[in-house]
Amino acid sequence: MQIVFRISRQTLDCAQIFQDYTIEVDKSKTILDCLNQIKWTLDGTLAFRKNCRNTICGSCAIKVNGIASLACKENVGHFIDENIDNSSNIIEVTPLGNFPLIKDLVVDMRKFWENLEAISPYVKIKSTPEREFLQTEQERDKLNQTSNCISCGACYSECNAIMVNSEFVGPHALAKAQRLLGDSRDTATAERLQEYGQSITGVWGCTRCYQCNSVCPMDVEPMEQIGLIKQKILKTQQSKETRAVRHRRVLVDLVEQGGWIDERKFGLLVVGNNFRDIKGLASLFPLGIRMLLTGKFPGIFHPSQGVQEVSALIKSVKATIKKDDSRN
To answer: Which position among 14, 63, 94, 101 has the lowest Cβ density within 10 Å, counted as fewest Cβ atoms?
Structure first.
């Protein structure tokens, strides 16, 4: 069948344009097979990355029809509709998002690797052992999912938090961080948790949009790994009652009480620390005044429908977590 590939062409000093290439391909061919065919037979100037062609190296990550994908993993049949005329089957290929462009489909990944380095992605030990480390099968099994990450950049490309906060280290780095926290050989857990919980550069910068989970080609589920790190941080900081701890506790408590968040209380309890943090309260005044002037400050709080069911669910989850903690 004939497929039109609409490919982004761009260099640093030029505006983006789209160029169409019509090729004859079988629907079982991968997107990378098609890019190779275009480069080898139609346009040798087309630039893209590739290496293993077997979903191992992560080099060929691009956007296909707006979704970050591995070109060597996705086949043509996934992106076309066989019920329409062949000439209407257009597959759009663009570079990954959140990365500076080098040329065409090739992006600059330096920031990506710098963010990974920032979380110290290696096992730390207090002293060099006399013999190799030994792990049980159960200890090693805890690392299987996060070890599947191939650093393709798909999750980084789709991360909404990075789009608005360039200091956020990214889902790829935090998934690797969770792998280290779960490694029985590592002795720097306390140090890591303090580092990973720093403001919005670490786990608290995540917006929980789940885009990273939806595009990860290796089912690492970075969002779930970030959630596990948050749980560990909260357990170690319960006595300190930091703003991050308050944020999580107050959010859950307010939802348990009203089914959703009472915005009148949330800022005062989290940022203002229940009127104990004067600087925090002062920082809320400008926002509060703007909300009042524009009529967006809620005067009355109305609980959501089904608040009793929501409250019962939260209490059940809390009881389960408490039981699991007691077992551990």
So the answer is: 14
Residue 84 pLDDT level (bands cut at 50, 70, 90): low
The CATH number for 233's domain is: 1.10.1060.10
Which position has the token pair 């348990």? Answer: 256
For the chain, helix, strand, coil in percent to 5 are 45, 10, 45
| Calpha distance 275→281 (Å, rounded) | 7
Q: 177-192, pLDDT tens digit by residue?
A: 999 999 999 999 999 9
Per-residue pLDDT reduced to its tens digit, 198-227: 777 899 899 889 999 999 999 999 999 999
SS3 state at 135: coil
Q: How many CB atoms lie within 10 A of CB 52?
A: 12
Contact 160, 208 (CB under 8 A): no
Task: Give Cα separations from 300 to 37, 258, 284 (angstroms).
Answer: 63, 12, 19
Residue 303 carries which DSSP code?
P
Q: How far apart are the first and last CA of the chain?
A: 58
List the domain range (segments joined by +) for residue 308.
Answer: 243-327
From 39, 74, 106, the end of a domain falls on 106
**So what's the pLDDT on residue 57?**
95
- Specify the DSSP element, H or E, that contains 63: strand 61-64
| 112 touches 187 (CB < 8 A) | no
Contact criterion met (CB below 8 Å) for 42 and 19? no
Instruction: Assign residue 90 the CATH number of its domain.
Output: 3.10.20.30
pLDDT at position 86, please?
58
- C-alpha to C-alpha distances, 259 to 254, 302, 308, 319, 323, nearest whole angstrom: 7, 9, 8, 18, 24
What are the C-alpha distances in Å from 299 to residues 258, 267, 284?
Answer: 15, 15, 17
